[in-house]
Design a protein that fits this description.
This protein folds into two domains: 14-136, no CATH class; 142-199, no CATH class. Helix 2 runs antiparallel to helix 4, helix 2 runs parallel beside helix 6 (109-136) and helix 4 (65-94) packs antiparallel against helix 6 (109-136). The termini are far apart. Strand 1 (159-172) and strand 2 form a beta hairpin. It is mostly helical. The protein contains eight helices and two strands.
Length: 220
Amino acid sequence: MTAQIVITRPTSQPFTDIAAMIARELRRTVRSVDMLITGLALPALIMCVFVVIFGGAAEKDGHYIQYVVPAILILCSGFGSAMTAVTVAKDMREGIIDRFRTMPIFGGSVLVGHVIASVLRNLVASAVVIGVAVLLGDRPTAEGYARKLASIAPIDERIQVLGPAEAPLAVIKGRYRFRLLVKALRNVDVSDYLREWLAAAPKTKGNLKLEVDVDPQSFL
């Protein structure tokens, strides 16, 4: 006499199965250094390269970051899609999908879990990019204004205008600081030169602030 005991589970639990697959993909993301770097750090690093290194050359007024951020957000979506494709291909190659087919789970839970996990990764990556963009937002604006100010400096053979250059203390109280140094002979009236220069200077907007220090005691 033989007895057979069969334990079954209803397959009408799609939300539970999808939640389990989402948690699986998120754990895989956290445990993979490559996915963390590619999905989270790389877009922010690319934005820093384009804004900090190339931004001043591409756009003199400092608004280049406004064009870079949307492109980087699209790049985040591309990276997220690529990672999803790689993980799905890996599951199929390693036989995990065949294993799931033998289990009493919702048929579309694997694919839906991949898609939702990818959306969540993209949201986190986008938040990181926007956060870095907010931190960098004032720097290109300050540098662009300093470059424009240097370009309109009156020409005088007795006076040299050096800069702009980032101050040794580049950030104070959340403000990025760039300096222009005016060097002249002792018999030259620098005050008249500065008045003429600043009269033609563009007006500061937003949180930009222009300060003039004659005979500075510190260059910090």
